[in-house]
Automatic annotation (TrEMBL):
<dbReference type="GO" id="GO:0006654">
    <property type="term" value="P:phosphatidic acid biosynthetic process"/>
</dbReference>
<dbReference type="GO" id="GO:0035965">
    <property type="term" value="P:cardiolipin acyl-chain remodeling"/>
</dbReference>
<dbReference type="GO" id="GO:0004623">
    <property type="term" value="F:phospholipase A2 activity"/>
</dbReference>
<dbReference type="GO" id="GO:0042171">
    <property type="term" value="F:lysophosphatidic acid acyltransferase activity"/>
</dbReference>
<comment type="similarity">
    <text>Belongs to the peptidase S33 family. ABHD4/ABHD5 subfamily.</text>
</comment>
<feature type="region of interest" description="Disordered">
    <location>
        <begin position="221"/>
        <end position="262"/>
    </location>
</feature>
<feature type="compositionally biased region" description="Basic and acidic residues">
    <location>
        <begin position="247"/>
        <end position="260"/>
    </location>
</feature>
<dbReference type="GO" id="GO:0055088">
    <property type="term" value="P:lipid homeostasis"/>
</dbReference>
<keyword id="KW-0378">Hydrolase</keyword>
<dbReference type="Pfam" id="PF00561">
    <property type="entry name" value="Abhydrolase_1"/>
</dbReference>
<feature type="domain" description="AB hydrolase-1">
    <location>
        <begin position="103"/>
        <end position="406"/>
    </location>
</feature>
<dbReference type="InterPro" id="IPR029058">
    <property type="entry name" value="AB_hydrolase_fold"/>
</dbReference>
<protein>
    <submittedName>
        <fullName>Alpha/beta-hydrolase</fullName>
    </submittedName>
</protein>
<dbReference type="GO" id="GO:0005743">
    <property type="term" value="C:mitochondrial inner membrane"/>
</dbReference>
<dbReference type="InterPro" id="IPR000073">
    <property type="entry name" value="AB_hydrolase_1"/>
</dbReference>
Length: 425
């Protein structure tokens, strides 16, 4: 796509502050964190796009190939809204020739800003195909409404707990779809967002045209010795290399390495299992740490996002910090949906075969999500008659495949999205 004309106003948000590495810096970051700062941090990521239009900015005439805007889409309950970034093509494809819009969904405790390395790819695809792309923050996460999350089922009633927890997100996504006037969607979900994409498709199969799952959570059946989630097998790499179809041997080898890592957790594993079952959120640690919280987040971002530039790491730190210290909400779903070890209480491998839409599984070669769940799901789908199910491995990537090797993931996503384009286009 040709470079879009700049539509930004002359001023931009101030540069992100340095990652706190001292008490005074951490205290300052904690004192100034909040909703206003989270909006600024998100906009700082979006302003990497020359066609991003801040709130109140009119669309230029003639319109550029694509524009990007952020808004809060109100749901049926006035207290609920979904934070949404919309990529809108300047020239929509004629009726009947446009592919379904793509809807991008983040993982547990994250937000749409995590996809900043993929913004340009989605914008380019939107302009080229004349179809919109939407990025959402799940209700109760990111910059969406932080409403109370409750599950009324008894702890022993697993099915009801899972259903109620899933409904918190699925119902809000369905309301959002209705408010946006969409008929069908291609869902692109990472981690928990992948799990919830499948859960949504199971409940509303006629509203989904295709599913792309990036390191999805909750797919395989759990082992008997469930443990707290392991970290990625090594410090997450950041590199290049194209996606390739996953082999059975490759998936099994990755699974063996994951189990070996989990067995070495010892005491941390037992404590983590207890806290998980009691419904504690890992983000409570940051909130209760007070002015030490920014330093904790800083250590995570500095260690985890080693492949990013210094500026990108600072921007991600500011963004993650501000969405983390916001009031806890949707994050409390985790112990109801997943058992310790991040294995689903109702595994998708046992539920997914009824879907008859194209489904693509994507894992990093250093992922901690069990790829055998994807392998078994593809087999189950094909056995049920769904021939358009497949799985890919992304080289030099961990759980955040879209950040660790963005080019390979971007190329694969575009390839899959293009398959939704009507044949006569």
């Amino acid at each position: 796509m040709a470079a879009a004309p700049s539509v930004l106003p002359a001023t931009s948000p101030a540069p992100a502050r340095a990652i706190p590495d001292s008490f005074s810096a951490s205290l300052k970051a904690w004192w100034t964190s909040g909703e206003k700062e989270s909006a600024i941090a998100e906009e700082r990521l979006l302003r990497r796009l020359p066609y991003f239009l801040p709130k109140g900015t009119p669309t230029p005439s003639p319109p550029p190939p694509v524009t990007a805007r952020v808004e809060h889409v109100a749901l049926d309950d006035k207290k609920k809204f979904i934070n949404t970034v919309s990529f809108i093509p300047g020239q929509p494809a004629p009726e009947g020739r446009a592919p379904p819009p793509a809807v991008v969904l983040h993982g547990y405790g994250a937000g749409l800003g995590f996809y900043f390395s993929n913004f340009e790819t989605f914008g380019s695809w939107s302009a080229r195909r004349g179809a919109p792309v939407y990025m959402l923050d799940w209700l109760g996460m990111g910059r969406s409404a932080r409403v109370p999350f409750t599950v009324k089922a008894k702890k022993s009633d697993i099915d009801s707990r899972v259903t109620q927890a899933e409904s918190f997100f699925i119902d809000s996504l369905e309301q959002w779809r209705e408010k946006m006037g969409l008929n069908k969607m291609t869902l692109i979900g990472h981690s928990l967002g992948g799990y919830l994409s499948v859960a949504y498709a199971l409940r509303y199969p006629t509203r989904v045209s295709r599913i792309i799952l990036l390191s999805p959570a909750g797919i395989p059946r759990g082992p008997d010795d469930s443990s707290v989630p392991a970290e990625e097998l090594d410090s997450a790499p950041h590199g290049s290399g194209a996606a390739h179809p996953a082999s059975q041997d490759e998936a099994k080898q990755l699974e063996k390495e994951q189990r070996r890592t989990a067995r070495n957790q010892g005491f941390v594993r037992r404590v983590g299992t207890y806290l998980w079952e009691e419904g504690y959120s890992p983000f409570q640690v940051v909130r209760t740490a007070g002015f030490w919280g920014p330093m904790l987040v800083g250590r995570y971002t500095s260690r985890r996002f080693t492949g990013l530039t210094e500026e990108e790491t600072r921007d991600m730190h500011e963004y993650i910090l501000n969405i983390t210290v916001a009031r806890g909400s949707g994050e409390y779903c985790i112990s109801h949906i997943l058992a310790p070890g991040a294995y689903a209480r109702r595994p998708m491998v046992d539920r997914i075969s009824v879907l008859n839409v194209p489904i693509t599984f994507v894992y990093g070669d250093h992922d901690w999500m069990d790829p055998m769940g994807g392998t078994e799901s593809v087999k189950a789908l094909k056995a049920a008659g769904n021939r358009d199910a497949k799985m890919y491995i992304i080289p030099n990537a961990g759980h955040h495949v879209y950040l660790d090797n963005p080019k390979a993931v971007n190329d694969l996503i575009v390839k899959e999205l293009d398959k939704s384009v009507p044949r006569d286009s």
